Amino acid sequence: xxxxxxxxxxxxxxxxxxxxxxxxxxxxxxxxxxxxxxxxxxxxxxxxxxxxxxxxxxxxxxxxxxxxxxxxxxxxxxxxxxxxxxxxxxxxxxxxxxxxxxxxxxxx
Length: 108
What we know:
Layout: H1 2-25, E1 46-52, H2 59-67, H3 76-86, E2 100-106
Antiparallel strand pairs: 1-2
């Protein structure tokens, strides 16, 4: 009985250390790769990209990363409006980290 408790304790400690090691070595804020799935045409103005949000990301920062050179003619209010159309139950100022949202990808 005593050896089973000791074994369980060692197993718990090993799993805890593995978990801490993985948390330290995976820094999601350093990975700025955006996972775009299929772009679905919504209208002539933009298509949709599915993006996982990380801590510190904003609607504008992600939209700039996705669209890069196409934002020169875009208005901030229009970007927020399109985001709200794609995510009607989401407050664009309070994105939840590690959640996937729909973002507009503007066509040239």
